[in-house]
Amino acid sequence: MLTKPLFLALIIAASSLSGCIGGVRIGDDGVEAPETIKIAFSIKDDYSNFDENPYRLADYLTEQIGKPVELYPITSDALALEALRFGSADMAFMDGGAGWVGWQNYGLQVAAADLKSDGRTYYQAHAWVLNGSDAANALQDDNESTDPFALLEGKTSCHTGWLKSAGMLIPMGYLIGNNYTEVLGDSEDIESLRNTIFNFFNEDASIPESGTPYYGYGGALKCLSDGTGDVAFAKDSTVDKYCNNDQVEEDEDWCLGLQDYIKLPAFGNAPSHPLMYQPNSISESDKAAIVSALVSLQESEDGLSILENILNTPGIIETDAETHLNSYSGLISQVPGISQYMEEKYQA
């Protein structure tokens, strides 16, 4: 049995060591110190422009919440997910796809989301068709028995690229989930999506690679405009961006008149970048303090500079996983093999 003096000596010695006792971090000087909050963030080797240095964000948050905030350097969303999964970081901004994987597979949650240039935390995925087409007529005829989506079958589709959110995953998830088409092939193989597209539309469907004329949102709209395809899958702002600029000379030379483009009802929302967090490594109060500080960035000149130069957004709002990711999740979950593909894509 330990003698009382020896027992007290062990207690004193243990308390003098740097570490965590009873959930509180004790510094080398024996003084209680607040736990550091770590945010995974993409860091370059050096910054020639002070305004773009992300450590400004850590300093700002530290000052705002009264607790040390550090950046955990990462170079990809895959590494951000790994950092949250294994406790190297408490929070991280990432794209919507990575956020979905973290939410579905690893129990991560959404604390906040950045804003698009128009102030939304999402953009909508749509099918664009030409005025006078079967699908356009079905939309405009005030007859509920004519379904514009059903009339897309057999047409030539223009996608923005392979496995792009608004250009492929969201619309195909909608069409599969609402029984317009069935998966052709193995439901666990992402390549079955290609066969499903060719089967529902036709074998001339445009699935362009990067650098080719019909790639991206502008490419998909060009594919529709020049008559190559019958329907373009893009987002709600695509026509305005390429064919409705304040300066007419900025419009693409292939643009038709605005009245020629008809937007079918939205398939769903593609989320902006979420701020994901690990519920097991950060307290509710610390999470709330970080979110409050990020939301308040819009209230000061220094904060606005951080938003513009470091976070690349006009603002941040508080939200949660159900609100931010549920629409997207319900749609892309219908795509064959998507879970395995996404998990592999975001593996470090």
Q: Care to give the gist of this entry?
A:
With 348 residues, the protein is of the alpha+beta class. The protein has helices at residues 4-15, 55-65, 77-85, 96-106, 134-140, 165-177, 192-200, 216-225, 238-243, 284-295, 301-311, 321-332, 338-345; strands spanning 19-21, 24-26, 32-33, 37-42, 69-74, 91-93, 109-114, 122-130, 157-158, 231-235, 261-263, 268-271, 274-277, 316-318.
Report on the biggest sheet. Answer: 6 strands, mixed
* Secondary-structure class: alpha+beta
Report low-confidence residues grouped into runs of 5 or more: 1-33
Q: Strands of the largest sheet, in order across it?
A: 5-4-6-13-7-14
3D architecture notes:
The protein is of the alpha+beta class. Helices cover 38% and strands 17% of the residues. It contains 13 helices and 14 strands. The chain has a six-stranded mixed β-sheet with strand order 5-4-6-13-7-14, with helices on both faces. Strands 8, 9, 10, 11 and 12 form a five-stranded mixed β-sheet that branches. It has a three-stranded antiparallel β-sheet with strand order 1-2-3, with no helix packed on it. Helix 2 (55-65) links the parallel strand 4 (37-42) and strand 5 (69-74). The radius of gyration is 25 Å and the shape is globular.
